[in-house]
């Protein structure tokens, strides 16, 4: 019985001490298996954030901005909004009241305390 490194990431891995996999119970010759299929669950675990596996190769995910994208906020301001804006937190930054769930909200002005969303200028 012979396992190859691919086996650990393969969908067909039997995870058994007595069986390599369902297709090749006693393993394969050489270092590559013709039936290797990357296990999607393993793939997710192995892919670092911002990367993805395509045909066993690790690729950096493209970060695509709209062509007219121009950042108008400093990094610290973006961070502030990420941490406080109800679009991201789901609660009013002033009174802590919750916004309705599963509703598409255009204006985040708070119904409870009257907090005004002026982050859109
Ligand atoms: Zn409020």
Describe the fold and architecture.
The protein is α+β, with helices and mostly antiparallel strands and 121 residues long. The protein folds into 2 domains: 5-60, no CATH class; 65-121, no CATH class. The chain is built from 3 helices and 2 strands, in the order H-E-E-H-H. The protein has helices at residues 40-46, 75-84, 86-89; strands at 51-54, 57-60. A two-stranded antiparallel ribbon has the order 1-2. The structure holds zinc ion.
Bound heterogens, unique: zinc ion
- The low-confidence runs, each spanning 5 or more residues with pLDDT under 50, are none
Which class of secondary structure composition applies to the elements? alpha+beta
The major pleated sheet works out as:
2 strands, antiparallel
How far is it from the N-terminal to the C-terminal residue, by CA?
A: 67 Å
Could you report the average pLDDT, rounded to the nearest whole number? 80
The count of domains is 2
How do you describe this structure in short?
The chain is of the alpha+beta class and 121 residues long. The chain contains 3 helices and 2 strands.
Secondary structure layout plus pairing:
Elements: H1 40-46, E1 51-54, E2 57-60, H2 75-84, H3 86-89
Antiparallel strand pairs: 1-2
The structure holds zinc ion.
